[in-house]
Structures are given as C-alpha cells and as structure tokens.
Write a structure and sequence with these properties.
about 425 residues, alpha+beta, 3 domains, seven-stranded mixed sheet, two-stranded antiparallel sheet, about 45% helix, about 10% strand, elongated
Length: about 425
C-alpha cells in the first residue's frame, strides 16, 4: 500500500495520534505530502499540532502538556442535546418578550377568522400548522415560544418552507420535523333533560365542541401520518410536562440523526477505502496483464519477422525455379522454330519470344534486389527494442506452384488434428421454407 493511500485512510483521531507521536515533518514524509498540505488537512479536520518547541522539550527529557483533540461540531451538539432536561417547562410570563416567530404566530391567529367550529387556522410558510379557538391563542403561542427556546440554542432552528403552500419546520442538516398544534373537538356534553344523540339531519361536527386542550404533533414528513407522534393535554398530564416531552423528543430525534449520519459517514469511508483497494488491485493486475500482453506481442512480432524472412527465402527460390524453367522453355521454343524454319523467325514468333522473356525476367527475385544480406537474413532478437521498430519484411507473393498453408490445428482431448475452417452459413438458406 502506498503512502498516499495510507494518508487517505487516516481518520481524524489517527491523524491526531500521529501528529503527537512524531514530528510533523516526519508525518508529512510518511504520508507522501508536503508540510503545507498537512497543515491544511489539520485545519480542515480541526486537529491541533504540537508547537515548534514541543519536540525539543521531549528530546530534553521533559513531558510537555499534550493539547487535547477538540470535539467536532456534531459531538458538541450531541453532548449538549443529551443533557438532562427539566420534567416540566413553564410558559413565559405575560411581561416576558416572546420569540419573534411566536409573536408572528400570535399576530396571524389574532387576525384570522374562525370557521364553523370557531377554530382559527394558520398555514403559513414561516409558521407551524396551528388550528385553535380564540381562547387558546395565548397558550398555543406561548407553547410554541417554549419549544423554540428549548431547541434553538442547540442549533435546531425553525425554517421557512420552500414551497408556496407548505408550513415551517425544524431543520438541522437535511432532517426536518413538522410541528402541528391543534385543539381537539369533543362530544358536546348533554344538557339537563336533553340528549346528545345526533339527529339524522345533523353533521357529525354539529354535536362537537372545542375541548380547550392542546394537541401537539411531530412528523418528519408533512403528510407522514404513519410516523407522526402526538402529545395530548389532559387533566393527568399538564401542559408543562407535554412541552418538556416535546422538546426532549426533538432533541432525541436530531441526536439520533447525527449519530446515524456519523455511522453512515464511517460506513461510506470504509466503502471508499475498500473501493480504492479493489481499484488498486485491479490496476496492478491490469498493469501486469498489459505488460504480459506487450511481451507476448513483442515475441510474436519477432517470431513473425523471422518466419516471414524464412518464407521469403522459400518463395524467392520457387520464383527463381519458375524463372529458370520459363527461360529454358522459351529457349527451347526458339531453337525449334529456327530448326523448322531454317533459322528464320516470323514477326509473331519474335514478339512472343520477347513477351515470354519479359515475363520470365519479372519472375526473377534478383530483379527486386533479393537477397540483401542485411535485410533478408538472420537478425539478433535481443538487439530489437521492446515494442519495435522491428526489422523490415519483403513479404513475397506466394508462387502459384507453392501449396497453401495447412488449416489451423484444433486440440481435442489431448490430440491434435487438422480441421478446415467452417464455411459461412448462407444467409439466403436460413429462412427457406418459412
């Protein structure tokens, strides 16, 4: 494993341990990077480095104090969010200034118009979804203020919705929590001598009235009812306890989200390291394969050059034999004609003899400059550079009297036999009879 790979695999804690176990220059050298690059990495990961005189003190036998590794932002948040919370959170006093978003919520609820159940609903991008009667506006607003005061100091702000019709939400990183505050409807209590039975002409809501109690809901999705958690105010559980539970749940949700992301980051880092290891192994194997392929092609090129020169010798000898045979044949023809015609030749015979001798001359390898001892003879394979250039080849045309090369040898269970190459299947025959 290379030094650069070791550097990439170092975690924040491992880098800290190395920096405080050996001089910075040595850490940079082992990691394969410069001192400047190492300093930038330490700054990015918030890893403290020893002071310039630290190692001089160590060499002198002293034990200088080691600066501790500071917590990351995620660790600071988790540490603060996991601190014990009071079991009951009180609503702010009337004289206490409310959170700006709580003030905005109160203004929106006060300006709203009640519906048929006397509920005033708010669905704005900067606020949570709220639906209460006029009598509970103050309690709902102060409850929202208490929840904000319990989570925003930890770095969990209430964000504005991105869509045109959505409501606001708590957000840290990419995790959201939607808050909904409602006042439930309950069955209208029976009056003396009366009945609570609903008449056939009445809607179900006609027999329901506002409960005067708040219900809080938290959901990571705006319409994720299956994941929704609810807290209902009743006589046994006062509002202060509900608010403490809600704040604790928001904190717990984001603590779990941070821990989950930390685990995912570690898993991604492991996968990255594993992927890089596989990639390095693949590159090493591929480099070996390519080198072997180059060696094989080099050996084949040398062998092909030597074989071609040997074949050229055979072809040249055969062309020379044909040349000599034709020359002798033409001379015999001339002697016969002269004998039969008292040494006189016709113009047609003279033209034929000239044509035949020119063809015989063209067949002679000597006319092409063959052989050249430097270009057509043996060569030293070790003197040829790896990958070429390779010695030149004439590659004579094959004389018509020379046999064609045998078909390829195909191995069958340890034995060899000559098998002719299969002829291509005629395309026109493939679909006959269909």
């Amino acid at each position: 494993m290379s030094q650069s790979d070791q550097r990439n695999e170092l975690t924040r804690e491992e880098l800290y341990e190395r920096l405080w176990s050996m001089p910075t220059t040595k850490v940079a050298a082992e990691s394969g990077i410069s001192d400047v690059a190492l300093a930038k990495r330490c700054k990015k990961l918030n890893v403290p480095k020893p002071t310039p005189g630290y190692w001089a003190k160590v060499a002198a036998g002293q034990k200088p104090e080691k600066e501790p590794l500071p917590l990351t932002a995620s660790e600071v948040f988790i540490q603060a969010a996991e601190k014990p919370l009071e079991k009951t959170l009180s609503l702010p006093e009337t004289t206490e200034q409310l959170h700006s978003l709580a003030t905005e919520l109160m203004r929106a609820l006060t300006a709203g118009k009640p519906d048929s159940q006397k509920h005033i609903s708010v669905r704005e991008r900067t606020l949570p979804e709220v639906s209460v009667t006029k009598a509970l506006i103050d309690r709902a607003t102060k409850s929202f203020h208490t929840i904000l005061s319990g989570v925003e100091p930890l770095g969990i702000p209430f964000r504005k919705a991105q869509g045109s019709y959505g409501s606001g939400y708590f957000q840290k990183g990419h995790d959201r929590l939607y808050l909904k505050i409602e006042e439930e409807l309950v069955e209208q209590p029976a009056q003396s001598g009366g009945s609570t039975r609903r008449q056939s002409w009445q809607w179900p809501t006609d027999c329901q009235v506002a409960s005067g109690k708040l219900t809080f809901s938290l959901s990571p999705e705006r319409y994720g009812l299956q994941k929704e958690k609810q807290w209902k105010e009743d006589d046994k559980t006062p509002l202060g306890e509900l608010l403490a539970q809600i704040v604790a749940e928001i904190r717990r949700h984001y603590v779990e989200a941070q821990k989950r992301r930390a685990r995912e980051a570690i898993e991604r880092e492991k996968q990255r390291v594993e992927s890089e290891r596989h990639w390095r192994e693949y590159q090493e194997k591929e480099a070996i394969r390519l080198e072997e392929e180059r060696k094989r092609k080099h050996a084949e090129a040398l062998e092909a050059t030597a074989q071609t020169r040997a074949d050229d010798l055979l072809k040249a000898a055969e062309w020379w034999r044909l040349h000599q045979t034709i020359v002798e044949f033409v001379s015999a023809c001339e002697q016969r004609w002269r004998k039969d015609q008292n040494s006189s030749l016709t113009s047609e015979q003279q033209a034929w003899l000239t044509w035949a001798r020119e063809n015989a001359k063209a067949m002679s390898p000597l006319e092409t400059g063959y052989p050249d001892a430097a270009k057509d003879g043996p060569f030293n394979p070790t003197a040829i550079p790896f990958g070429g250039p390779y010695p030149a080849k004439r590659d004579f045309p094959r004389p018509p009297t020379m046999p064609k090369p045998p078909p390829p040898i195909i191995q069958h269970s340890g034995s060899s036999e000559y098998v002719p190459e299969p002829k291509p299947y005629p395309f026109w025959l493939k679909y006959q009879g269909r």
